[in-house]
Design a protein that fits this description.
The protein has 177 residues and is α+β, with helices and mostly antiparallel strands. The protein has three helices and eight strands.
């Protein structure tokens, strides 16, 4: 075998190795991005299960609606915010209702340890910060239901974790127009 043929053989072998390694790296990184959507969906489902089964709601309350949110809170930002909540109704006084949820936390593996349970009384003046999904939930609910009934209190009980890494999940990247 000539020196030229040996060089060609070494070059071809080296090129195949470099191509294989590069392709493997691209596949591994690409798979990680395609796996992030199901991982975020699984995390959201776990949070939904926690709201439905881990929070001790007073017996004098009733479920009205459930909501969940996974995505970015702001335009041109890549971050995953999780929010899961239930709108409930009750005849309890506001003070008694709030005392039943006071200092209530939930622990969900993979989330903030001892995640606080938030409670908002719903009426036409209820305000939440811009960018939080609870704002849309409450606005939508107030448009559809009469929240001024004298003996019924509507309230939102929810879990909220903003600003987690998106790790390539397309739902967590809001693009401006």
């Amino acid at each position: 075998m000539t020196l030229f043929e040996q060089g060609k053989k070494v070059f071809n072998s080296t090129a195949k190795i470099i191509f294989s390694v590069t392709l493997s790296i691209v596949i591994i990184i690409g798979s990680a991005f395609f796996l992030t959507a199901p991982l975020h969906t699984l995390s959201l489902w776990r949070m939904e299960r926690a709201v439905a089964s881990s929070i001790q709601h007073p017996a004098e309350t009733s479920l009205v609606e459930r909501f969940s949110f996974l995505g970015s809170r702001y335009i041109d930002d890549a971050e995953c915010t999780y929010a899961v909540g239930e709108i409930r109704s009750t005849n309890l006084s506001i003070q008694e209702l709030l005392s039943r949820y006071e200092n209530n936390t939930v622990s969900i593996f993979g989330f903030t340890r001892r995640m606080p349970v938030y409670v908002l009384i719903i009426d036409e003046e209820t305000l939440t910060p811009i960018g939080e999904p609870t704002r849309d939930w409450i606005d939508d609910f107030v448009e559809r239901f009469n929240t001024n009934e004298a003996d019924i209190i509507y309230y939102l009980v929810y879990l909220y974790e903003p600003g987690r890494s998106d790790i390539g999940d397309y739902r967590c990247l809001e693009q401006g127009l």
